[in-house]
């Protein structure tokens, strides 16, 4: 998870933006993107990403899913 110091904020203020940014950075820093020169989408499709990125991918999915689920209105959004 990325830590922001001081008054740093993401330019993207939409729901699930923090999870999306962390997933993006995790994928870009993975060996698949750095060494194999693949796009993050190709790395996700090949399932050649580290477990940390898989966890972030699942968290991002759950966050997006909670936006559509009416039961989540009372429980709050998942993710950060």
Quickly describe the structure.
By secondary structure, the chain is mostly helical. Helix content is 56%, strand content 0%.
SS summary, helix count:
5
Estimate percent helicity.
Answer: 55-70%
Q: What proportion strand?
A: under 5%
Biggest β-sheet strands, sense, barrel? none
Structure classification: mainly alpha
Cα distance, first to last residue? 10 Å
Globular, elongated, flat, extended or rod-shaped: what is the shape?
Answer: globular
Mean of all residue-level pLDDT scores: 82
Let me know the number of strands: 0
Q: What do you see in this structure?
A:
The chain is mainly alpha-helical and 80 residues long. The protein has a domain at 17-69. The protein has helices at residues 17-28, 31-34, 40-46, 51-68, 72-75. The protein is globular. It starts with 16 loop residues before the first helix and ends in a 5-residue tail after the last helix. The model has no long low-confidence stretch (mean pLDDT 82). One of its GO terms (biological process) is mitochondrial respiratory chain complex IV assembly.
Topology, pairings included?
Elements: H1 17-28, H2 31-34, H3 40-46, H4 51-68, H5 72-75
Helix pairs in contact: 1-4
């Amino acid at each position: 998870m990325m830590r922001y110091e001081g008054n740093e904020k993401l330019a993207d203020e939409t729901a699930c933006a923090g999870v999306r940014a962390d997933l993006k950075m995790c994928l870009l820093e993975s060996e698949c993107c750095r060494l194999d020169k693949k796009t993050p989408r190709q790395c996700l499709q090949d399932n050649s990403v580290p477990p940390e990125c898989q966890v972030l991918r699942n968290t991002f999915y759950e966050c997006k899913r909670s936006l559509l689920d009416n039961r989540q209105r009372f429980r709050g959004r998942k993710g950060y």
